[in-house]
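Sequence dictates fold. Next comes a concrete instance:
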Amino acid sequence: MAEEGLKLYGLKLSPFVLRVEWALKLKGIEYEYVVEDLKNKSPQLLEYNPVYKKVPVLVHHGKPICESTVILEYIEDAWKDKHPSLLPTDPHQRAVARFWAKFSEEKCLRGCSDVFSTTGEEQIKAVEELKERLKTLERYLQGKKFFGGESIGMVDIVTGWITIWYGIIEEIVGVQIIDEKELPLISEWARNFLELEPVKESMPPLDEVKAHLRELRELVLAGQFSA
């Protein structure tokens, strides 16, 4: 049964919504899932997120929280008694985790968008830059099963979309991004991440993800959409 007054407005094909699902399931928090159609956005979504008008939106007792990383912080603060914790208790370690979550979001995710939205020499350059960023991120995995240690935390959840989307993007754009020989720790981390029950339970329909990304890439290359 969903916790009273807790709703997640989302879309199964969104990696940002998945972050919130993983966090809620990881902590054992029940919620109501409200599926949104972004081509025909509901009045509730527009009311709850009037600035960006997008998912995810978590509504707790009628109060909306927007943007996936902000929602993750809210979940950690609102349900501190629920384990595992998404962030370390030590202030310095919390700051370090936030740093790497931000790096993953701004450098690795952005880098993947650059690969996805380019071709030719520009794409080759984007792939090399992304690989270097992933090697930098991999340093934070040294000696650990997950970025969070023995259990997943904020950095794992923010970075988790890699485990599902990268392989599909590699297939669509025709380049290899994650080579196990070049990125052995991230490759092993990805396998461990995919074995987690919250991840298995929330797995999106991969054929739909692939079809969506193919369509999106065509729009991007035609200049009709900005990745």
Summary: The first helix runs from residue 15 to 26.
